[in-house]
Amino acid sequence: MAKGLYQSLRTIWKKPKENLGDILRARLIEWRKQNVVVRAERPTRLDKAREMGYKAKLGYAIARVRVKKGGRRRRKPEKGRGPSHAGLVHFTPKGLQWIAEEKAQRKFSNLEVLNSYWTGSDGVSDWYEVVMVDPNHPNIANDPKINWIKNPAYRKRVFHGLTSAAKKSRGLKA
User: Fold this and answer.
1) 52 with 43: CB under 8 angstroms?
2) Residue range 101-154, pLDDT digits in tens
3) End-to-end CA, the chain
4) Helix 5-14 to helix 16-33 angle, to the nearest 10 degrees?
5) Cα–Cα distance, 134 to 142 (Å, whole number)
6) Element (H, E) at 118
7) Are the C-beta atoms of 133 and 60 separated by less than 8 Å?
8) Looking at the whole model, is its pTM more than 0.85?
9) pLDDT tens per residue across span 25-55
10) Phi-psi region at 156: left, alpha or beta (left = phi > 0; alpha = psi -120 to 50)
11) Within 13 Å and on the Cβ side, how many CA atoms surround 108?
12) What does the angle CA 167 – CA 171 – CA 172 come to, to the nearest 5 degrees?
């Protein structure tokens, strides 16, 4: 039986290094030279973007965000020795995807973060694409599936931990 477009894309992205080798490598080299948060013309992973709520119409935007890998170190106590169980290393307060969504929200403050997905990684950085919605756009206001985002309770929802990545990082999702 023949596969559909989205099913084919999903199988390709399950093993990106094998299936997209040179293309992905060239993209990562190009993305490294760009700013940390960049507005993308179209999604890199169309299947995942559609799954996350993206539609190719006015009022929707995609932001590609670069996040440094690894956690952060806590400060060492001022006096005395630093015991090994002081909890100074391996301390990550939240997931990298959530951090990427927050960076995108700070850059595009008039838009709302809907969701995000992974697009690539190298030895230093991870890249995520963030699906964003303009709550003031007429297309969004007239669409009954997405106009809930106009409600003031969902303003800056990424900072309140209401996106999917934030909920997962907070331990509310499996």
Assistant:
1) no
2) 999 999 999 999 999 999 999 999 999 999 999 999 999 999 999 999 999 999
3) 33
4) 80
5) 12
6) strand 112-121
7) yes
8) yes
9) 999 999 999 999 999 999 999 999 999 999 9
10) left
11) 26
12) 55
